[in-house]
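Pilot study result, target chain (71 residues):
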Amino acid sequence: MDNKNSYRSQLDSLPEHLTPEAVSQKLHISQATLKKWIKNGELRGVKILKIGAVTRFESSSFKEFMEKRYS
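Predicted structure:
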């Protein structure tokens, strides 16, 4: 399996909602950088759910973001 297919299969197996930790790992960035990206609007199209102090990212919109960014 080539790298692109392996990468896509990883995205296909994502849970419905992702933690900030999972998103920062997938992007290979620190959580501090992820917070800056959110603040600066660099994750356009990724639906971010905030419930009190809990933040989750909708995996389907994150997958679309990743496919556009890395294709």
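One observation from the pilot: The longest strand covers residues 54-58. A full batch analysis is planned for the follow-on phase.
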